[in-house]
Amino acid sequence: MHEKSSDVLAHLPDGERRASVFWSEAGVRYARVFSGVAVLALGVAVVLLSRRLPYHSDYGPGPGFLPTWIGYVLSACAIVVTAQELRAPPTAEEFFRPRTRLAVKVLAAIGVTFLLVPFLGFSLALGLLIGVTMRMMGSHRWLACGVAAAVAAVGIHYVFGRSLDIPLPTGLVGF
Fold it and tell me: Which pLDDT does position 124 carry in this prediction?
């Protein structure tokens, strides 16, 4: 079974112990409740902003139909998850599990990719994302990741940019 966090953290100085206990026990609960409230706020914002779009059109549902219902469903799910977390007994969990750290790294890589698109172009930025995430997710060698990134970039450029004539952002590199 799990040892109590106070026993496990007894060797740490008082300030570090309090911080570790926060992030390992109560912090998980606070983070889940805060996340639920944030998703609820996002759902409400989606509903309110989608009100600016017409709900109906001549041919059926208008451009505001889908965002309105997505906002309602998002809000409802957030309320259910937040209520479940508030009613659940406290558990001693780690705030950042190894797979959670990996997910945060992948999300950071996606964010960096969006920032690189104006400079490298869509094809190269996405190819780079594929190579980096291959390296993060598995034990692939850098050479294999580099080859996969290059093949993906060229493939994206020729399939979508040339064959399907979809205009892709080219960036400063022009590819």
Answer: 94
Number of domains in the chain: 2
Burial of 42 (0-12, 13-18, 19+ CB in 10 A): middle
More confident residue, 76 or 95: 76
For residue 88, the one-letter residue type is: A
Strands, E assignment, 64-174: none
Kindly state whether residue 168 falls inside one of the protein's structural domains: no
Q: How far apart are CA 15 and CA 11, in angstroms?
A: 12
Domain boundary among 48, 66, 87: 87
| Alpha helix segments (H runs only) across 51-141 | 65-87, 98-120, 122-137
Separation CA 128–CA 157 (nearest Å): 13
Instruction: For 28-54, write each residue's pLDDT tens digit.
Output: 778 888 899 999 999 999 999 999 989
* Domain-terminating residue out of 58, 87, 116: 87
* Range ranked top by mean pLDDT from 31-35, 109-113, 159-163: 109-113
Q: How far apart are CA 43 and CA 59, in angstroms?
A: 27
Would residue 175 count as lying in a domain? no
Helix axes 122-137, 98-120, angle to 10 degrees: 160
How far apart CA 82 and CA 96 sit, in angstroms, is 19
